[in-house]
Design brief:
Belongs to the putative lipase ROG1 family. One of its GO terms (molecular function) is monoacylglycerol lipase activity. By secondary structure, the protein is of the alpha/beta class. The chain folds into three domains: 156 residues, Jelly Rolls (Sandwich); 359 residues, no CATH class; 55 residues, no CATH class. It contains 22 helices and 17 strands. The strands form three sheets. It has a seven-stranded mixed beta sheet with strand order 12-11-13-14-15-17-16, sandwiched between helices. Strands 2, 4, 5, 7, 8 and 10 form a six-stranded antiparallel beta sheet that branches. The protein has a four-stranded antiparallel beta sheet with strand order 1-9-3-6, with no helix packed on it. Helix 3 crosses helix 4. About 12% of the residues have low confidence.
């Protein structure tokens, strides 16, 4: 038998949202004597002239290889092999080591290879690739494989097979989980990691909620510019269709929604549509989790540079751009939107869709969800900044105060790395007991401190500017969104402090108020293409990862401060050009929170935080693993309430 054996070859093409997964199980006892490793070769078959084309592409694929015993949450010794962007006419070579890490049983070794399309803008382009597996690198250049059926077993899944898995227990009630993607994104590839983390979290759980079936609407891929109403109606129709299909084989009695970025407003619009078309749906199916990660529920009208907001407003990104800048577009369909309030009064639909989303009938459904959770990045997400992702209202003052404790701990750690710190900050309030799990139970394995907002250390220039007028403006900006009844360490209320502070006098405490830095939209957009990849040490050693959950707290309607922009003098509308949009954002934020509690989880992730928060690609965006793991385990795993 020749030592140069080509064991398998395959040629496929992928478009937007397409993925192919291969699982190779090889009986090494049947291989030629002396075979110590296997060799994988994947080539992008597209023309090299397509490399610089991104508007309709990019014409590339992502590839990773994982031995059967690999677990991203455990220590790993072997080099992890992946290619973040296999461009046209390029090759990817990987050596599949035959060792303990790949040992399945007996003399059988197994590896999993994922090939994911990088096409993200339009649904038309297709990318062809060829995969070969051989016993030597030379053999991967051969054309026809040797027929050794006793030697190798190949399992292959495409996108629809991966997203059509049955529940663990067919005889038990099924918990349907609907995932919704964001702008320039897709279900098949971009949400695959999060889907599998949810399924992994339920493996060892016997709770009824853990018998999950995870699905996602693939009808909106490449249609992000068509508007939130259009996208949401399509997701709503998809939910009803999937429910009817599953009901023929199983009993579906629970439902959860998980959305990323634009997926948050889109899944809310889907709830609107379902509540109108099938009012009995949420009576027959119990709503469990409403989860949104980095979702712009308040739009981005005041969070983007002027030229970006103006571009979105005039329609450079279609109806979705106008929706996100809180503009109403006439002559658009109102299908899926209620024309009356819950009390039967007529409602005007000639207003921004973002203003309508938190109203009835969706509001009544949202109240019935057992858990409502928001995830937001405190830094490095200029695409969906913290204020809009966290619905504006946070315990800003307490978060700013504990920043000093964080710096003290960092300084102590730097001075003596061998001694652990005993500083405890921002313990979850007793009200957080209604959350899916105790936050401390999950974050005890992480080095990040609960409740600490990462911030740059103060320099001399910043100290000199403490008493400048712009500092007062900055303080007031966050003071308006400061929740009330936030107890300090001595038992006093933060709201009491606010009342005793002269409104036009900046005191020492206000000067020291240092909220998280506002992320740059431009830098966030650039980081999508230029952000550094995780190092091999970061991938292999979970203890080296510094990304963390820094704040996890329940926020209740009783903690909302009085509205700031209500009955404002007319002259302020002239002085402050953003007065009207600020008022509208405040009204939207209060509509979301005035009648229901929200769990808000803030995470500190490396750039590109907007894609990292859902781990868009398994190893490229592994910085966000802490957020996805937290979401999966606290809402679907053993640690859920």
């Amino acid at each position: 038998m020749s030592p140069d054996l080509l064991l398998y070859t395959d040629r496929q093409e992928v478009g937007i949202g397409d993925v192919y997964r291969y699982r190779f199980t090889v009986d090494v006892s049947q291989l030629p004597p002396g075979t110590q490793d296997l060799f994988l070769r994947i080539k992008n078959l597209e023309s090299p002239l397509l490399r610089p084309i991104y508007i309709s592409g990019p014409y590339s694929v992502y590839v990773d290889v994982r031995p059967c015993k690999y677990d991203e949450d455990k220590q790993w010794e072997e080099t992890v092999q992946f290619c973040c962007d296999l461009r046209p006419d390029e090759h990817f070579h990987a050596k599949l080591l035959i060792n303990e890490n790949s040992l399945l049983e007996g003399s059988k070794h197994s590896w999993t290879v994922d090939v994911l399309s990088q096409v993200c803008v339009t649904a038309g382009p297709r990318v062809k690739y060829r995969l070969k597996l051989g016993t030597t690198r030379k053999s991967t250049k051969q054309h026809e494989p040797e027929m050794l059926e006793s030697c190798i077993d190949i399992q292959k899944w495409d996108t629809f097979q991966l997203w059509d898995l049955p529940p663990k227990y067919s005889e038990k009630p099924v918990h349907l989980v609907i995932m919704t993607h964001g702008i320039f994104s897709n279900i098949g590839c971009d949400m695959l990691y999060m889907k599998e983390r949810i399924e992994k979290a339920t493996l060892n759980s016997d709770a009824d909620e853990s018998n999950v079936v995870v699905r996602g609407c693939m009808d909106n891929m490449g249609k992000s510019a068509h508007g939130i109403r259009y996208l949401g109606v399509r997701v709503g129709k998809y939910v009803l269709k999937v429910y009817e299909e599953l009901s023929r084989r199983y009993t579906v009695d629970k439902i959860s929604f998980v959305g990323h970025s634009l997926g948050g407003p889109t899944q809310t619009m889907a709830i609107h549509y379902i509540a109108l078309e099938r009012p009995e749906f949420f009576k027959n199916v119990k709503p469990i989790n409403f989860i949104a990660l980095a979702s712009p529920f308040l739009g981005v009208a005041n969070d983007m540079p002027l030229f970006v907001s103006l571009g979105l407003t005039i329609g450079t990104f279609g109806l979705t751009g106008r929706d996100l800048t809180l503009k109403h577009t006439p002559l658009t369909s109102t299908k899926g939107l209620a024309a009356t309030n819950s009390d039967g009064e007529k409602r005007s639909l000639r207003r921004p869709i973002m203003e309508i989303l938190p109203l009835s009938p969706a509001q009544e459904v949202l109240k019935n969800f057992q858990y409502r959770t928001l995830y937001a990045s405190v830094l490095h997400d200029g695409i969906v900044p913290l204020r809009t992702a966290a619905l504006l209202y946070l315990d800003w003052r307490s978060l700013a105060k504990v920043g000093q404790l964080r710096r003290q701990q960092q300084k102590q750690t730097n001075n003596n790395t061998e001694e652990g710190s005993d500083i405890q900050v921002d313990e979850p309030s007793t009200s957080s007991s209604s959350a899916p799990c105790s936050p401390s139970s999950f974050t005890s394995n992480y080095s990040g401190i609960m409740g600490v907002i990462p911030e740059a250390p103060l320099d001399k220039k910043a100290t000199a500017q403490f008493f400048m007028p712009h500092k007062l403006v900055k303080y007031r900006k966050y003071a308006r969104a400061q929740i009330t009844d936030s107890k300090s360490a001595d038992g006093s209320s933060e709201s009491d402090e606010q009342e005793t502070t002269p409104p036009r006098k900046i005191n020492e405490e206000q000067a020291k108020f240092n909220p998280p830095r506002e992320a740059s939209t431009i830098l966030a957009a650039i980081s999508v293409l230029t952000s550094p990849l995780p190092t091999q040490d970061y991938i292999k050693d979970p203890n080296s990862r510094t990304d963390s959950v820094v704040h996890d707290r329940m926020y209740h309607p009783s903690e909302l401060p009085p509205p700031h922009y209500k009955s404002r003098p007319f002259y302020k509308k002239i002085i402050y050009p953003n007065e009207s949009s600020n008022k509208l954002q405040e009204e939207i934020a209060r509509s979301w929170q005035k009648s229901m509690s929200w769990r808000k989880v803030l995470v500190d992730l490396k750039p590109d935080a907007h894609n990292n928060i859902v781990v868009r690609r398994r190893f490229v965006n592994l910085f966000g693993n802490v957020a996805v793991r937290h979401m999966a385990e606290t809402h679907f795993g053993n640690t859920q309430a």
